[in-house]
Amino acid sequence: MTKAQIVNDIAKKTGIEKVAVQASVEAFMKAVKESMMDGENVYLRGFGTFIVKKRAEKTGRNISKNTSVIIPAHYFPTYKPAKEFADKVKKTVKAAKKGSK
Fold first, then answer.
1. What fold is seen in the domain 41-101?
2. What is the rounded CA–CA span in Å between residue 86 and residue 72?
3. What are the Cα distances from residue 72, in Å, to 23, 34, 37?
4. CB–CB of 77/36 below 8 Å?
5. Is residue 73 within 8 Å of 56, Cβ to Cβ?
6. Is the separation of the CB atoms in 94 and 64 below 8 Å?
7. Which CA distances in Å does 15 have to 22, 30, 95?
């Protein structure tokens, strides 16, 4: 599902104009991004958590030059779904796949 499809779906379900829904979705995404860039996690009860994780420095290999390369420590965003949400997805997708066989 794309962002445009999400906007269309919300607009249909709520009766709010697409322009207003688009602005809300954009503002939500901007708020999540800014929080994560500040090193804060974003918790959405029942949906999941957007987490900023730190990856430690490590030594990698450049195979083409046969040399070692230091990969510096860095932060990266991840998403962890809420347990009840993940369980519902498992059940629904399993049932859908089972029915299509």
1. HU Protein; Chain A (4.10.520)
2. 33
3. 37, 23, 18
4. yes
5. yes
6. no
7. 13, 23, 31
Q: Tell me the domain boundaries of the chain.
A: 1-40, 41-101
Q: For 10-36, write each residue's pLDDT tens digit.
A: 999 999 999 999 999 999 999 999 999
pTM for this predicted structure:
0.76
SS3 for the chain is: CCHHHHHHHHHHHHCCCHHHHHHHHHHHHHHHHHHHHCCCCEEECCCEEEEEEEECCEEEEECCCCEEEEECCEEEEEEEECHHHHHHHHHHHHHHHHHHC
Tell me the pLDDT band of 96, cut-offs 50, 70 and 90: confident
